[in-house]
Specification:
- This is ELMD3 protein.
- The chain is mostly helical.
- It has one domain.
- About 55% of the residues lie in helices and about 0% in strands.
- The protein contains 13 helices and two strands, in the order ααααααααββααααα.
- The chain has a two-stranded antiparallel ribbon with strand order 1-2.
- A hairpin with a 2-residue loop joins strand 1 and strand 2.
- The two termini are about 30 Å apart.
């Protein structure tokens, strides 16, 4: 399934239950509002609020085995990461090999469908990221082959993806990305680029420092801080990487 088709599916859904769980930024006092005007990020423009609400609602959707689009997203993830021309069974150890917790292509984290699942293959087919190669180098860094067994040497790819997506969603919820969204007049495009930029940063950290799974918490903390405090810097690093 393409990103465009998957997004159109969720745009056509009511998502009323998920929208009801969306937490908008809380109200601020007069002093906080003044400081925001002087130093903080601007408010998201009204014409972009609908797109923001859609993204936050999508992030609350749970994986549904009866939903054909969800299953197609899972199959797309498998085929893109493994470069297989064939699909795979719904359940099995192959999902653990991709870095999921368990054998059903899911995790124990809430809000894992659709944004994190789409973003596993989305960034390499959308916006500026269409100029990037497929995510194989990042995926291959996450494990090494030991005979016929696949052993995680560094990090479970899909779990890290879910963590990064949650950081990006939280940055949007807290309006940390409003300036960039306003500048580009879009929300989803900014989210996708920031997701890929954060994953690129993770790749560089892990490879450059010869990271292991023991370093995961430290690297994730750095990524979380960067998505909150320095999103534009992350995006510029992605732009520089693409233009090389």
């Amino acid at each position: 399934i393409s990103f465009t088709e998957a997004l159109q599916h969720f745009q056509s859904m009511e998502l009323s239950e998920s929208r009801g769980r969306v937490r908008a930024p809380g109200r601020r006092g007069i002093l906080a509002a003044l400081l925001r005007c002087l130093r903080g990020p601007p408010r998201l423009r009204p014409q972009l609020r609908g797109e923001q609400e859609l993204v936050l609602a999508m992030a609350q959707c749970a994986l549904d085995d009866s939903e054909w689009v969800h299953m197609r997203i899972l199959q797309t993830i498998y085929r893109q990461l493994t470069r297989s021309g064939l699909g795979c069974p719904r359940y099995g150890a192959h999902w653990e090999e991709l870095g999921f917790q368990g054998r059903r292509g899911s995790t124990l984290l809430p809000g894992e469908i659709p944004i994190p699942k789409i973003q596993l293959n989305l960034p390499w087919s959308n916006s500026v990221l269409s100029q990037l190669p497929q995510p194989l180098p990042v995926f291959q860094l996450s494990f090494h082959n030991a005979g016929i067994l696949v052993v995680f040497q560094n990090f479970p790819f899909c779990i890290m993806s879910v963590n990064i997506t949650q950081m990006v969603i939280q940055a949007l919820r807290e309006e940390r990305l409003s300036r960039e969204c306003n500048r580009r007049q879009q929300v989803i495009g900014v989210l996708n680029d920031l997701y890929a930029a954060a994953f690129l940063r993770l790749f560089c950290l892990w490879k450059g420092q010869h990271g292991t799974i023991a370093d995961a918490g430290f690297f994730l903390k750095e990524l979380e801080l960067s998505t909150k405090k320095k999103p534009r810097q992350l995006l510029k690093s992605l732009e520089a990487y693409v233009s090389r």
